[in-house]
């Protein structure tokens, strides 16, 4: 790996999880990958279904911090 790429990766890995997600999404979006309309449509429908379930009270959300605490308890420390 080129030195600058390695440095960027090291810096990125030191970011909090939420910021790494934003970074990954930005990098993937920058690739201009071809869209797959049928898959995009299905994901849109799924997102709307889940939002409806949350808004109706059919399902409850779990705070991110609680999820991470549970994962850490099961798998040890995660950066």
β-strand percent reads: under 5%
Gyration radius over CA: 17 Å
- Helical/strand content category: mainly alpha
- What shape does the CA trace take? flat
Structure summary, number of beta strands: 0
Overall residue-averaged pLDDT value: 90
Helix content: over 70%
User: What's the total helix number?
Assistant: 4
Major sheet size, sense and barrel closure:
none
Provide the succession of SSEs. Answer: HHHH
Terminal CA distance? 22 Å
Uncertain runs with pLDDT below 50, 5 residues or more?
Answer: none
Structure characteristics:
single chain; 79 residues; mainly alpha; 0% strand
Helix and strand layout, with pairings?
Layout: H1 3-13, H2 17-30, H3 37-56, H4 64-75
Give a structural overview.
The protein is mainly α. It contains four helices and no strands.
How would you summarize what this structure contains?
By secondary structure, the chain is mostly helical. It has helices spanning 3-13, 17-30, 37-56, 64-75. Helix content is 72%, strand content 0%.
